[in-house]
């Protein structure tokens, strides 16, 4: 989402002139129809965060500093809205806990409460302001919901694209229930959202730029280095909370796979979202916790601001390192998706804004509701790494006659790890793909891939495969980030 301001004008032109490639929203609507919700007419409703409240209400914060509470948002296209709070500083994180609504603003974490029951917040308490703010447009702060220990995790954008001019810019902090600041990880560049994974781990989306060849989902391991060294100047303020500063990255154009060997705390991107192919501005994160949102339980949904999309990510842990595959999921949202929030009943709320970067959706702001229709799309449900290739699990049984080598095509590539802005795809490889096994139920296929390349994105297109009903894969391309190759037979 965040990019060098010099690129904005050309970006807006390219976004508006570019049609959505591949699958069209009309193809997806059979499975995941989108409902646009009416928003207050007297405000620009640029959604920054969405949180679920009791009694099937939701709280929505806007980039203009307001928080609105909506009711009838699950049933109606014209919800009733109440202005809960105003004059906040671009809140990009909301969490409801014990009768309080917590808002992560640019300069602080605040909690709000309606003490007299009139629908408006009348108690505002600063829980923590333990990080800096200079006033630069780029100094966003994204906050998680509460974790199991009651902490809120805050990711802090750098100042501009290249510097850290305010305290803890480029860091992840945990804010404890009593307001203590816990430095947690360094190396952040430009987060667009933060959320929880299938085992309670915390992940965030970082955007292409210096030391980020492409945008990606990253795992926030306590004490980890996320790749961008510009915020490391604040280690003296952390008082040893996460150890010593990591060595400075090599100044030559190198690769993450080699820097991991030199920097023990370097946690590689979990899933790279190839720039221009799967958007270019990943944002909010939502975990699919059960089967009420379709056949993708345990996977992540990730918002995409510039392309007005939602992507789907399958994750697995290999040799103690998180990695996985990304697939296109939902196209055609009305504005640049920033916030995604999924209720356990299977209702997804997606909202956003196009201010600053432009978005394919074409609207200045939007709040939309998505539910699974109950129909199962023919998709690659999972893409798992194996010692000599990948195993695909499908959502429906395949026609075995189409499970042939010619139905699969793969390329592999990586990115330059460097301080310049972004990177082209480099070190291209064209692996040979062969079908080695099809399960008796027709739901899994084992693929031999030669060679497998550690550290590369393995882009697999499943063009010729058909289901028993004759359907092609709805989203036929997956992008697997191979941080580790499994050990074994």
Summary?
The protein is mainly β. Helix content is 5%, strand content 38%. The protein has four helices and 32 strands.
Task: Give the radius of gyration.
Answer: 22 Å
The tally of domains stands at: 2
CATH class of the largest domain: Mainly Beta
Largest sheet data? 8 strands, antiparallel
The SS-based structural class is mainly beta
Mean pLDDT: 94
The CATH topology of the largest domain is Neuraminidase
Taken as a percent bin, the fraction of beta residues is 35-45%
Shape: globular
* Separation of the first and last Cα atoms: 41 Å
**Can you give the helix content as a percent range?**
under 10%
Low-confidence stretches: 1-21
The CATH homologous superfamily of the largest domain is called TolB, C-terminal domain
Number of strands: 32
